Amino acid sequence: MFPARRVVRGFTMIELLVVIAVIALLMGLLLPAVQQTRESARRIQCQNNLKQIGLALHNYHDVHLRLPPASIWIGQGEPHGGGLMPLGTFDRVAMGMAPGTESDRLYSSWVISILPYLDQTTLQNAFDPGSPVDADVNRTVRETVLSTMLCPSDAYNRVPYERALLNGPLGHTYARGNYAINVGNNRPCFLFEPACTAGFHSGTNDLENTNATVWGNGVAGVNVSFRLADFPTGLSNLVAVDEIRAGIEPRDPRGTWAFGMPGANMTAVENPGPNSEFPDGITSCTILTLQYSSAELKRLGMPCADSLIPANFAASARSMHPGIVNVLRLDGSVDTQPNSVDLDVWWQVHSRRER
Q1: Model confidence over 97-135: pLDDT tens digits?
Q2: Which of 50, 140, 175, 262 is the most exposed place for a label (fewest CB within 10 A)?
Q3: Could you tell me which residues come within 8 angstroms of residue 76 by beta carbon, excluding any fewer than 6 positions away?
Q4: pTM here?
Q5: Is residue 202 within 8 Å of 213, Cβ to Cβ?
Q6: Domain range list for the chain
Q7: How far is residue 351's CA from residue 189's CA, in Å, rounded to a whole number?
């Protein structure tokens, strides 16, 4: 007797297509959830970075009895810009003038000042404060990637900034960062000018020859430091550090931790809210616009503006987190601000004075 045959039935083509469709549907449903979970983790890490920076700022204040200056510039006045350009915005290295016809004037910045309080004492010891940041002796420091200064959501922060690339060679390299001290949301003018209201302060009205200080209504300035006691409206009511985005290519200075200029590690000038279409004022905007177009820069969330004299003079809070930016309050707390935040509220938390 022969054994009974077992009939093996395979999938029909229709059944196979149905299974594939179901799997594709499940993947389509799960992928956004996975991406959302990953972004949530990245956002938490970004917030933890800001908390570490806040602790470092307070530890610095405990030792020095003041917060660090936003940047340290050597030299009296700024001869470029017809006597109206403030100290701390004209980049001699990017413009191809240093170390040729003129010396670089940028010697330090607020992040360099707090390195020991970010567990980077060895790096601080390697920094020569008697030389510009761009000097060869400080190359190792400025090229060092600091994980605390990087938001993991930013897809551009692994591409270094090449400061001299506009008019010179590679090698003036700076590591990126995603956090900027709040210099102030003042108007781009000086209070000594007759028609200027809510503008910046300066050490003198002779900007071309004698000015050595610039400060606004934020928490730090060029060659200017503040005490926590200088903020009577309360530390929890003032943003100390904004999240910013790293530049989209090597000539874009935005998001550069050791480079003490607006856009690089400072937010400054009228601040229209998180991730605004209001352009950042940066030295390389002309070449970026020629390469990408204004529309493409806006689509990328990184609009920029030119000035008559190329300079880094204005920057807003930006992030690659959907719909929000993270901010560090002066009391050390961290919160998120939506793109839809009321602009008066946004203005007030960036100003140490009432409007």
Answers
A1: 988 889 999 999 999 999 999 999 999 999 999 999 999
A2: 140
A3: 209, 210, 211, 212
A4: 0.89
A5: yes
A6: 13-349
A7: 16
Contacts of 62 by beta carbon, 8 Å cutoff, 6+ apart: none
Gap between the Cα atoms of 209 and 126, Å rounded? 33
d(CA 266, CA 258): 11
3-state helix/strand/coil string of the chain: CCCCCCCCCCCCHHHHHHHHHHHHHHHHHHHHHHHHHHHHHHHHHHHHHHHHHHHHHHHHHHHHCCCCCCEEECCCCCCCCCCCCCCCCCCCCCCCCCCCCCCCCEEEEHHHHCHHHHCCHHHHHHCCCCCCCCCHHHHHHHHCCCHHHCCCCCCCCCCCEECCCCCCCCCCEECECCEEEEEECCCCCECCCCCCCCCEEECCCCCCCCCCCEECCCCCEECECCCHHHCCCCHHHCEEEEECCCCCCCCCCCCECCCCCECCCEEECCCCCCCCCCCEECCCHHHHHHHHCHHHHHHCCCCEECCCCCCCCEECCCCCCCCEEEEEECCCCEEEEECCCCHHHHHHHCCCCCC
Among the listed residues 306, 294, 296, 310, the one whose alpha carbon sits nearest the alpha carbon of residue 167: 310
Amino acid at 300: L
Report residue 36 as tokens.
């959302």
The pLDDT value recorded for residue 36 is 65
**Residue closest to 193 by CA, chosen among 95, 305, 304, 83:** 83
Q: Among 74-78, 80-84, 158-162, name the one with the lowest average pLDDT.
A: 80-84
pLDDT at 32: 62
Q: What is the mean pLDDT of residues 331-349?
A: 95
Average pLDDT score, the chain: 91
